From TrEMBL:
Family according to the record: Belongs to the LeuD family. LeuD type 2 subfamily.
PANTHER family in the cross-refs: 3-ISOPROPYLMALATE DEHYDRATASE SMALL SUBUNIT 1, 3-ISOPROPYLMALATE DEHYDRATASE SMALL SUBUNIT 2-RELATED-RELATED
Molecular function terms from GO: 3-isopropylmalate dehydratase activity
Gene that this polypeptide is encoded by: leuD
Organism: Pelolinea submarina
Protein name per UniProt: 3-isopropylmalate dehydratase small subunit
Amino acid sequence: MGKVWKFGDNLNTDEIIPGRYNITIDPQELAAHVFCEIKPEFTQGTQSGDVVVGGQNFGCGSSREHAPIAIKGAGIRCVIAASYARIFFRNAINIGLPILECPQAAAEIREGDEVQVNLSSGVITDITTGRSYQAQPLPDFVLKIAEAGGIVAFLQEHDIDELMTAAGGAV
């Protein structure tokens, strides 16, 4: 369960983490500046397990993975949005930041609400209002990547030959 930090449509990667801070990929350093220009209270007010909720086209802009790294580094449990920019979606998965797409939840959940998220079922429960929403659940392999901490950690934990066999050689 975590507190919601709400953002609107077309939130771009420079609003998530301004380019001048992208001289590192250290999650804690990036987290110290995440959303600094649009929601300066974010870094002081977040707690591990909080949730970011955004509108349409969340994470549009540059292809740098700094944006999801900064969000994850701030202790955010997951991001819920109406839709994602494709490159942000892939970068989030690759670095192990769980994301769910649910337009209704993104529209109705308010800043400060307490929410509970079940990543494997895709059920989002707004504890504050008592409403539940059904997002498309994350596929098992994406959950495993998130649990490992990202694609690099996942691949380090698994034998590539085993993965190739499980995928029918299509990796």
